[in-house]
Amino acid sequence: MTKNIHVDGIRKYLMNWPDLIRWDVLTFTSAAMAVTAGCLMPARWLPLLPNDKLLHFLAFAMLTFLAGQFTETYRELLFWSAGLFCAGWAIEALQAWIPGRSFCWRDLVANTAGIAAAFLGVHLLR
């Protein structure tokens, strides 16, 4: 009797797996991985970028906006925004060891501006 209850529980869990996936978190994680990979590629692997600072602004604004989709409070959004700032700083610091890349304060400022703009937008739209 107990075995059937256990099997039924597993079957019920497997039938409902799409409801268990947090698509907003999965989207954020995928985007964060793509931004990190793009920022840490050697310069020779990248095409000539027309406006590097705009790309930094847009990438971190997008990540902040995506984080705003799964945060519920102002404090949570502030926490995630601070985490994105730290991640942006860490990426810039790691670029010192990437061929053809270097730490750039202007990139960090563009990241921060993107985070701040999206933070304000998400906060005002709530």
How would you describe what is shown here?
The chain is mainly alpha-helical and 126 residues long. It has one domain (21-125). Helices cover 76% and strands 0% of the residues. It has 6 helices and no strands. The protein has helices at 2-15, 17-20, 23-39, 52-70, 74-94, 105-125. Helix 4 (52-70) packs antiparallel against helix 5. The longest helix is centred in the middle third of the chain and has 21 residues, at 74-94. The N and C termini lie far apart (50 Å).
Short description:
By secondary structure, this protein is mainly alpha-helical. The chain has 6 helices and no strands.
Structural class: mainly alpha
Low-confidence segments, given as residue ranges, are none
Radius of gyration: 19 Å
Strand content: under 5%
Helices, by number, come to 6
What descriptors fit this protein?
126 residues, mainly alpha, 0% strand, globular
Give the arrangement of secondary structure elements:
Layout: H1 2-15, H2 17-20, H3 23-39, H4 52-70, H5 74-94, H6 105-125
